[in-house]
Design goal:
The chain starts with 5 loop residues before the first helix and ends with a helix. Helix 23 packs across helix 25 (644-666). It is built from 29 helices and 18 strands. Strand 8 (444-447), helix 19 (455-463) and strand 9 form a beta-alpha-beta unit. The chain is globular, with a radius of gyration of 27 Å. The strands form four sheets. Strands 11-7-6-8-9-10-1-16 form an eight-stranded mixed sheet, with helices on both faces. It has three domains: 6-101 and 297-327, no CATH class; 128-180 and 562-772, Chloramphenicol Acetyltransferase (2-Layer Sandwich); 205-214 and 342-493 and 528-560, Choline/Carnitine o-acyltransferase, domain 2 (Chloramphenicol Acetyltransferase). The protein is an alpha+beta fold and 774 residues long. The longest helix is centred in the first third of the chain and has 35 residues, at 58-92.
């Protein structure tokens, strides 16, 4: 049956059945069968779908949809507006309840959160011949002619023998398991069988732009510049103001207001507001009234109340079709179920995910000590801002020195060792309850004492820290520095960042609109914090204490071996590159290729992550930015003579080729995941692997010396991850209307992140010179 308004139905459930658990109280329902207006809407939309389904040309769909939907809006708009006004009138008669609901839920979407999920298309399995050809195209840039000829023979043999058989088996599996994608299960399995430690190796991080009501988006550039300027501890704020010719004093005064607060006040206000908004987000998710994740190609046409009215009144599959016709693409939201209350449990051979949706607490880490903070009452409602504020202050005022044996360090060791140590912990009386409380908590809130001195200090803190105040197994750690800078470090097996980024954007905007606690606001002394806060204690044996000590020493050496550097480049930005009719992402990737070749005089396998969330249970596909087009441009740019007109042509070819690869990957037409799935099938059969998969070329092709990922969000200040191979570079980059940004990680003994950033800057200057002189 068709579903109706997600939140309208939720109000009845919330008011009449408060004792129910949120997970059993999904806010979805049916449209009124006798509602003539809704039936008219449905009839017209079905007509649109029927007409458009006869056309194979997707580009034609938007024209047909525009025509029908414009007529539909003209005929039914008044009735829909009347219905909306009636709803507002009802809500106005319940001011107190509305106020309560306004606090309890971050969003009250008309379209249920999972409304489009059943209508999502399945991730396609590419044709074997295309996968083989694309693989050859992907490896050509770093092979000589002899190596490439040998690879071609292996690929041809694979395609006509074992590859054909494995592909046929994969298609049969795909047809039998229509509820999921062909990559979801083996991808989870690959992560869970990973035996090395999680920090640096797997867990990425994202840092919010500064949380301060005095900040706005234009001023964040100031903050970035300030951090970059103050790498030298001898440089002062006053020197920065004098030397920053692009800044007005009034702007910088706004930025520095936050710095005048007491350290505990900054940390406390930011942490409180994040916890409130995060819990409001979770409430909306649990009650199925969080806005579905939709990519709007034409936001002015589809991201409208009219679109939401129509889709909320239709069955999910038909709603997806209408959204597709309007060039609005709903994204898979299956990963959201692991965003909260989830922990990766270390197990011998293969880890497990543990989710406890009944838990009502968050876990707070301070100086290596664990606290359980209950944020939801027995009826599922969120406790008040004052209660959260007072509870966090109560924790911050615990004056115990840093824990002598911080068990968080145990999450920094390899998974096999941690599995054994966790088993030993569980055998000690009382520890099981504490561990299970941590496992089931919504998330970990890490209250740090570090000041954000410069981008490198910030990056290393959020990427790995010292391990004392961390719990890397948790699906999400929200880290807050003493100066209020906050971010997220997340465990990677359960998701690819799509859900985390949405969470961070929604939380940031919610705090911008609803600062529940102001900086410096006093807490309510009448609140009994013991009602909400519980200290989690652990009993340790001598062997476990020794293991913690060794883990701390090993982790410190490991973190010291990692180099992290950043680059902010203001001479080009997103607007500039688009005005030159070039793909900004392609230019970033080309600059990376130039920078590496300038340092090492060779081309290497390069990885760029591309989301396939437009498909049910999609994960990622690999884009291979190292192409023959980029090779040609790099060699021409770094050659002895420069022809700017010719270089411009080559640069445009790089942009077109890269854009094509990104499009293919996003549509599920890459080759990496297809080959990976067939390799997994072969391994599970227990037979000898096909020659293609044991060939040195295949191994080299998957040794990603350059591992890259783009971070496109208006609320993110920094983001990054560690190198995926010992001699590699981990490169997170961002493209904004103000600047281009890079965060580069390397291991000191193998590569030099500072040299790479210097080479990157020179490469960007060279590319800009080409654009300015052609």
């Amino acid at each position: 049956m068709p579903r109706g308004s997600g939140f309208d139905n939720s109000i009845k459930n919330y008011e009449n059945e408060k004792t129910m658990q949120p997970e059993n109280n999904r806010l979805s329902g049916q449209i009124y069968k006798n509602d003539k207006k809704a039936n008219n809407v449905r009839a017209v939309v079905i007509a649109v779908a029927a007409v458009c389904s006869k056309k194979a040309d997707i580009d034609y769909d938007i024209e047909v949809a525009d025509s029908f939907l414009t007529k539909m809006k003209a005929k039914l708009g008044d009735r829909l507006e009347f219905s909306q006004r009636s709803s507002e009138k009802i809500n106005n008669n319940r001011d107190q309840e509305a106020h309560d609901l306004a606090y309890q839920f971050l969003e009250r979407s008309k379209i249920p959160t999972m409304h489009f999920q059943d209508g999502l298309p399945r991730l396609p399995i590419p044709k074997l011949k295309y996968t083989c050809q694309n693989y050859l195209n992907g490896i050509r840039p770093f092979l000589n002619d002899e190596q490439f000829d040998a690879a071609k023979k292996l690929v041809d043999d694979f395609r006509h023998s074992s590859g054909e058989r494995l592909n046929r088996e994969l298609i049969l599996w795909y047809r039998r398991n229509k509820h999921t994608s062909y990559i979801a299960e083996p991808w989870f399995d690959m992560y869970f069988r990973y035996r090395a430690a999680l920090p640096i190796n797997q867990n990425p991080f994202l840092v919010w732009k500064p949380y301060n009501e005095s900040f706005n988006n234009d001023q964040v550039f100031v903050y970035c510049s300030f951090l970059n300027f103050c790498r030298d501890a001898n440089r002062t704020v006053e020197q920065f103001v004098k030397q920053s010719i692009c800044l007005k004093n009034s702007t910088f005064q706004n930025v520095t207001i936050f710095n005048n607060l007491n350290a505990i006040d900054k940390l406390l206000s930011v942490a409180t507001n994040i916890v409130i908004s995060a819990c409001r987000f979770k409430r909306s998710l649990d009650y199925n009234c969080l806005q579905p994740e939709v990519y709007h190609f034409y936001p002015n046409k589809s991201n409208t109340p009219f679109f939401r009215n129509i889709c909320s009144r239709l069955p999910g599959k038909l709603a997806w079709l209408i959204a597709f016709l309007m060039k609005a693409f709903p994204l898979d939201m299956s990963q959201y179920s692991f965003l909260f209350n989830t922990t990766r449990i270390p197990v011998m051979i293969k880890d497990q995910l543990n989710t406890n949706r009944s838990s009502k607490c968050i876990i707070v880490l301070r100086r290596g000590y664990f606290y359980s903070l209950t944020v939801f009452r027995k009826d599922g409602s969120l406790i008040s801002p004052a209660e959260i504020h007072a509870s966090l202050e109560y924790i911050l005022k615990d004056n115990r020195p840093v824990a002598e044996n911080p068990i968080g360090l145990l999450t920094t060791v390899g998974r096999e060792q941690w599995s054994l140590l966790r088993s030993q912990l569980l055998m000690i009386d009382g520890n099981e309850r504490s561990l299970l409380t941590i496992d089931g908590g919504l998330f970990v809130l890490n209250l740090d004492e570090l000041q954000s001195v410069d981008p490198e200090t910030v990056g290393k803190s959020f990427l790995h820290g010292d391990g004392i105040n961390r719990w890397f197994d948790k699906s999400m750690q929200i880290i807050v520095h003493a100066d209020g800078l906050a971010g997220v470090n997340f465990e990677h097996s359960w998701g690819d960042g799509v859900a985390v980024l949405r969470f961070m954007e929604d939380v940031y905007r919610d705090i911008s609109l609803n600062a529940w606690i102001k900086p410096g606001q006093p807490t309510d002394a009448s609140i009994d914090c013991s009602e909400f806060v519980e200290k989690l204690e652990f009993k340790l044996t001598k062997p476990i204490e020794e293991a913690i000590k060794v883990a701390g020493e090993t982790y410190r050496e490991w973190c010291d071996s990692l180099m992290l550097r950043t680059l902010q480049y203001q001479a080009m930005n997103r607007k500039y590159l688009k005005e030159k009719n070039l793909s900004p992402d392609a230019i970033m990737q080309t600059a990376i290729q130039v920078a590496f070749y300038r340092l090492h005089s060779k081309f290497v396998p390069t990885y760029e992550s591309c989301s396939t969330a437009a498909f049910k249970h999609g994960r990622t596909e690999a884009v291979r930015p190292a192409t023959m087009a980029s090779n040609e441009f790099v060699q021409a740019l770094l050659g002895s003579e420069r022809n700017f007109a010719q270089l411009r042509i080559l640069l445009e070819a790089c942009s077109k080729q890269h854009s094509l690869l990104v499009k293919q990957a996003a549509m599920g037409k890459g080759f990496d995941r297809h080959l990976f799935a067939m390799k997994v099938l072969a391994e599970r059969r227990g037979d000898r692997l096909p020659d293609l998969f044991i060939d040195d070329t295949y191994r080299t092709a998957n040794h990603f010396t350059l591992s890259t990922s783009s971070l496109f969000s208006d609320v993110i200040l920094l983001g990054g991850f560690g190198p995926v191979v010992h001699d590699g570079y981990g490169i997170g980059y961002s493209i904004t209307d103000e600047q281009l940004g890079f965060l580069v990680t390397t291991y000191r003994l193998k590569r030099n992140a500072q040299q790479f950033c210097t080479s990157l800057e020179q490469s960007l200057n060279d590319i800009r010179m080409v654009l300015e002189n052609s």
